[in-house]
Specification:
The chain has a 15-stranded mixed β-sheet that branches. Strands 16-15-13-18 form a four-stranded antiparallel β-sheet, with no helix packed on it. By secondary structure, the protein is of the alpha+beta class. It has two domains: 6-254, Aminopeptidase (3-Layer(aba) Sandwich), CATH 3.40.630.10; 257-330, OB fold (Dihydrolipoamide Acetyltransferase, E2P) (Beta Barrel). 45% of the residues are buried. The chain has helices spanning 62-74, 92-97, 121-133, 164-177, 194-200, 218-234, 333-341, and strands spanning 6-8, 16-25, 35-45, 50-54, 82-87, 139-144, 150-152, 155-159, 181-185, 204-209, 251-254, 260-262, 267-271, 278-279, 284-289, 299-302, 307-313, 317-318, 323-330. It is built from seven helices and 19 strands. Bound molecules: zinc ion (ZN). Zinc ion binds next to loops.
């Protein structure tokens, strides 16, 4: 039998609780037969759906990593129906470094799910998730935040797919998560993100952005946990605790390319709006200053669309092309449902 460069120690067919490792071969000077040991938990109990819960695709996004770490330590497998696969630190080298990308190969795991996988550690992790884990799953939930460079209002997210029946089921799951902002996008993502691989394999793809700015925020962690446990309840896998039952008001949102503001030049970014502000097209958004050229006039920035400020840049210095703001635009629930009915 030939050996593989990535393998999973927990038995994916076994019942019960297992916490172990996915090993990625990593042969380097100080460890010729070394491996990257990615933590992986499997909870299985009888008949029911399978869900993949994933965090740490980006190493500097902490709320999801903590929510899943707590879940692994606290979940009683006898209470579930079905199977929960948990990857709390999916791109482990990035997680340990506290960086968006892997220090081993510069790889961005959530841009590694393209038509071909690279032979780098990050590419091999993506290949294992997409080709070995996703085919076992009915649903995946991938937890993100704004990372070091962005602050992100907490929101749940769903790729609705192009199929009306799948889109309707996905929207029902998104609504059940009951985050303060429920962000739905029709179609299949064009970028090589996990959602594209999931939809191509017929797996319902849910995600979310929970905080950012390079730090852990307790309120955003709470929203992430609320989304996880409400989704597990909705799927019939685990009855949620009383603390997650109360419904909160949610706003349904979408985005287009016009909802982004990018830096036109290098300098110091001065925002004139904060996460949660509601802004209008043409409204002053901020300034780019050049302290290194104090006689240069600052460059004025304006929003190109109406929307809710969902993202602001968390770093002062910017280079041309950096994202400074990202808006999400509110839309009625009925409009989302009408869009799903119109899918062909
Ligand atoms: Zn992320």
């Amino acid at each position: 039998m030939s050996l593989t460069s990535v393998w999973c120690e927990p038995d994916l067919t076994a019942q019960g609780r297992q916490v172990g490792w996915i090993r990625v071969e990593h042969s380097v000077h100080r460890s010729a037969y070394g491996t990257i040991a990615i933590p992986f938990a499997v909870f299985a109990n009888g008949e029911g759906p399978t869900i993949l819960l994933m965090a740490g695709s980006h190493g500097d996004e902490y709320e999801g990593q903590l929510a899943l770490t707590r879940l692994i330590r606290s979940l009683d497998v006898s209470r579930i129906r079905g199977r929960i696969l948990v990857l709390p630190a999916a791109n482990l080298p990035a997680v340990v470094a506290g960086q968006r990308t892997s220090p081993l190969d510069g790889g961005n795991l959530n841009r590694s799910f393209g038509d071909h996988y690279t032979d780098t550690p990050t590419g091999q992790i993506a290949a294992f998730i997409a080709e070995e884990l996703m085919p076992l799953c009915d649903v995946m939930l991938d937890l993100h935040s704004g990372g070091s460079s962005l602050r992100h209002l907490s929101c749940s997210y769903a790729d609705l797919s192009c199929d009306p029946a799948i889109a309707a089921r996905t929207f029902a799951a998104l609504e059940a998560m009951n985050a303060p902002l429920s962000w739905a996008q029709a179609g299949i993502p064009a970028a090589p993100v996990a959602g594209r691989a999931a939809l191509r394999k017929g797996v319902m793809h849910l995600s979310g952005e929970f905080g950012g700015g390079g730090a852990l925020n307790a309120a955003d962690l709470n929203v992430a946990e609320r989304c996880i446990y409400r989704l597990l309840d909705h799927l019939g896998i685990l009855e949620m605790a009383a603390e997650w039952r109360a419904e909160i008001a949610t706003r349904f949102v979408f985005n287009t390319q016009a909802h982004f503001t990018y830096a036109p030049g290098e300098g110091v970014f001065e925002p004139l709006a904060a996460p949660g502000d509601v802004v209008e097209k043409g409204q002053a958004a901020g300034w780019i200053h050049r302290p290194e050229r104090p006689e240069d006039a600052p460059v004025a920035l304006h929003f190109a669309s109406d929307g809710i400020v969902a993202v602001t840049r968390a770093m002062g210095r910017c280079l041309p092309g950096d994202c400074l703001f990202h808006l999400l635009e509110e839309t009625p629930r009925a409009a989302v449902l009408a869009g799903i009915k119109a899918l062909k």
